[in-house]
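Before a colleague's protein record goes any further, I have to sign it off. Would you go through it and say whether the fold makes sense for this chain? Take the sequence as given and treat only the tokens as open to question. The record follows directly below this note.
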Amino acid sequence: MSISDIPIIIGKYLTVFLTSLTPIGELRASIPLGLGALKLNIYITIIISIIGNFIPAIVIIYGLESISKFLMKKFKLMDKFFNWLFQRTRKKYGKKFEKYSNFALTLFVGIPLPVTGAWTGSLIAFVFGIPQKKALLDVFLGILMAAAIVTIVFKAFGYVKFIIAG
């Protein structure tokens, strides 16, 4: 590697990072992208993907409560909406969630399937009123779990098979 290769390498890692920030791709897309298409270092790719996937979770978990409280205070319609959302969701799923609450959020984030992940898990934590520090820990553990699963599946089956199966 020469000095002239550094901007290219940085650009590739930046691509991995930006992909891991996205709500649909998250690290389920960034790890295979980094390891398969971009042929990057496995350890750096995983670390960058974990960090990138965790940043939106922090923003959602710490930001949504303030935003919703502001909107509820300023707009009667938003107050009705959020109260309806919280009551409906907690009534419909509350018992199941309480039963599995010690590991439900971690598993939800950690199993890399469509519609699961850090974004959705953080929204669930917000709606169910999970304390922020616990929610962050659960989401982070889920991200680590997902990173391990995605990496193992990718390394075992390769890029093409991973994309087809996912």
